[in-house]
Amino acid sequence: MLGRPNLSHLMDEFARDVRGMVADGGGIHAGALAVCGPVWEDGRMNDPNNLWPGEFERAEVLEGVLGIQDGLLRFLNDFEAIGHGIAALQDSAAPPECRVCKEDTLLLHEGEAEGSDYSIACLGAGTGLGACYLTRSGERYVVSSSEAGMCDSFSPCCEREWRLKQWLMRMHGSAYVEVERVVSGPGIVDTYRFLQQEMRDGRAHDLVKGVEWDPSLVDRNLDAEEPDERARVITTSVNQDPLCREAVRLFLKTYGRELGATAQRWLCFGGLYIAGGVLPKIIDMSGSEELVTAYLNQGTKMSEIVSRVPLRLITDTSVGLKGALYLGLDLLPE
How many Cβ atoms from other residues are within 10 Å of residue 180's Cβ? Predict the structure, then answer.
């Protein structure tokens, strides 16, 4: 996508490719575009903030580029698309192409209150921390987007976590520390770098006490790796590097607490789903116990309420694509 001046140029290339593949008379009749950044005006305007800063995109412009009838293209936030994938999972009439297989969801906590009339929520760590929630309307669920991952809700529970928050404040030059600064792929990398500094300052020797490890790892330079590979290097080294193991543990613990907070915000007794690309890659190696324990530990007043909310992990990485298709089919003219 980068290398093009805006989304319109990218869609123009896409339209030419489609016209070259379909028979005469074929084409694009409706569209649901899952995009990063905020979406406004009932899905008619998008600010692709971290791809093309300042380049606002309007649906009517792309409809002209794609040859789509006015009003039949809609933007939706990329995590909102995941919400539509979850909505399709609840819809027995949804086409199979739109549905996540039951085998691609993993039950982490059974809960007690799952039912067809309750709200549903979803939280997912990837390059950031996405969120959405679903409410029942008639026979189907309505999806609402959220920017909950941008809240300053990283609440330290020990001295090391407090030092991590202070380190993040200094690193990013702001007292406002979004929870996705910890609960995301880049967050894992930053937490690892913080632990390296902790070791240099003599504050992390408890992590290596009685453990055979290579002290040179404290100077490991992750900048030598591609940005998308840095978190993977850490998560696949948990058995060799105690700093990697602690970085993943802090990620899972903070993630679990934020999931518990999400359950309280939306009382999503229909289920709380975890999506995003990070956790499915970690859970086989590190397990889910740390995350689920933190999820359920929500204080004396709210732990019992949270325990009633089922917690599920979606392992299907195409759930957002399926959700966009589910919405796009609804946009097709009769």
Answer: 25
Cα–Cα dist 133/156, whole Å: 26
Report yes or no: 13 and 68 within 8 Å, Cβ to Cβ.
no
Whole-number Å distance between alpha carbons of 160 and 194: 10
Token pair, residue 90, equals 């609840």
Tokens of 22: 């379909």
Query: Per this entry, what is the length of the chain?
Result: 334
Tokens in use for 184?
């995301």
CA distance 200 to 219: 9
Q: What is the tens place of the pLDDT at every residue in 76-120?
A: 999 999 999 999 999 999 999 999 988 899 999 999 866 678 999
pLDDT digits (tens, 9 = 90+) for 290-317: 999 999 999 999 999 999 999 999 999 9
Q: Distance between CA atoms of 306 and 262, rounded to whole angstroms?
A: 9
Q: Judge whether 4 and 65 are in contact, CB under 8 Å.
A: no
Classify residue 149 by its DSSP letter. Answer: G
Return the percentage of the chain with pLDDT > 70, whole number: 93
Strands (E), the chain: 31-35, 39-40, 45-46, 57-58, 73-77, 105-109, 120-125, 129-137, 140-146, 272-275, 311-314
